[in-house]
Amino acid sequence: MEDLGGIKNFPIYMGCVEHPREKDIFRDLEWHISPHNGLLQLKKLIPLDILYAGNNHSGAVGDVWMKHHKAFASFISKYNPKTILEIGGAHGILSMLYQNSNKDTSWTIIEPDPIPVDGVKANFIKGFFNEKFTLEEKVDAIVHSHVFEHIYEPKMFIEHISNSLDNGKYLLFSVPNMKEMLANKYTNCINFEHTIFLTEPYIEFLLSQNKFKILKREYFLKDHSIFYACERDDTLLQTNLPSNLYEANIKLYLEYIDYHKNLIDRLNAKIAKFDSRKELYLFGAHIFSQYLIASGLDTNRIKCVLDNDVAKQGKRLYGTGLQVASPKILSNKEDPLVILKAGAYNEEIKNDILGNINQNTVFLD
User: Fold this and answer.
1) What residues contact residue 1 under an 8 Å CB cut-off, 6+ apart?
2) pLDDT in tens, 204-257
3) What are phi and psi of 137, to 5 degrees?
4) What is the mean pLDDT of the chain?
């Protein structure tokens, strides 16, 4: 593996907490790449019981996420499965949307930390989908949404799914469009939770290795997610990886690093020039803000972190000394300044603040 460097002393948890700052854990966020197949990976994995010690489920807040869940539920409906096992369903929103339109469906979720929202009818199993887990009854489809990129052993994961399904049954899943995300310099692409740059060539290679024929691939927004519909097929032959992935991936990564170095220099220069009476805020109590801060963003002028998730408000952003508040606090501010680098969610956030909270807000990006 070829070392690519990274950021020293990065907070391991992408969420908000109430415990003292001294209890936060930091590790080096460093990457390396295979010259053989171009696979970009985190050098040192964080033990799962430490990484996910706090509750950090995404996908429950925001218009973009709800549109994603509705689109993916509709995508699943095309294959009309009647018995479904979902891996890592967390809040159960996907199952609720699907079962509202497919009332005769049996849906089971295996999830180590279930937090079902009101209205979920799915059956929850508290646990992990690993080699120790076996299905009591066969299902028509196994489903997962934004789970694959969190798996430490993706080859074993797909192999276990394949062994759990009969020939002709379906694997239906959604993954982040990581190639577009890294190309667009989104900081929620690769991190302590997304430890492998899991782009389409690698996904499709793993699928073919484990007898999954791709029936359909569909994109949700240009820079958000990819939906896959696959059928278990014992006759399928294995495909090979393209030969140019090393060159393509290292180029994307180095451009991503250079972009953020220049961004931090630019933001810090702007902050230094602003009138000291201007109030400055940072949006996103998540990896978006943590990455900027760990990269050297000057936080001395930042009053707090803004986030729409009420479960984060009133808490502290892990790895920082910044408290979290609702963006509604901007409503009575005069021309507030907000640093906004939230990837695919930028426009949703910006439109909400300008349209519903304070039309005079000035965004820095």
Assistant:
1) 32, 33, 34, 35, 41, 43
2) 999 999 999 999 999 999 999 999 999 999 999 989 999 999 999 999 999 999
3) -135, 150
4) 95
- Domain 276-364 belongs to what topology? Rossmann fold (3.40.50)
What is the helix (H) or strand (E) element at residue 281, kind and residue range? Answer: strand 280-283
Which of 84, 80, 79, 210 minimizes the C-alpha distance to 138? 84
The ranges of the chain annotated as CATH 3.40.50.720 are: 276-364
Half-sphere exposure of 136 (CA within 13 A, CB side): 3
Evaluate if residue 11 carries a pLDDT over 90.
yes
* CATH number for the domain formed by residue range(s) 63-240: 3.40.50.150
Long-range pairs, 219-222, Cβ under 8 A, ≥24: 219/177, 220/67, 220/68, 220/71, 220/72, 220/174, 221/64, 221/344, 222/177, 222/180
**Where residue 69 falls among pLDDT bands split at 50, 70, 90?**
very high
pTM exceeding the 0.85 threshold for the entire prediction: yes
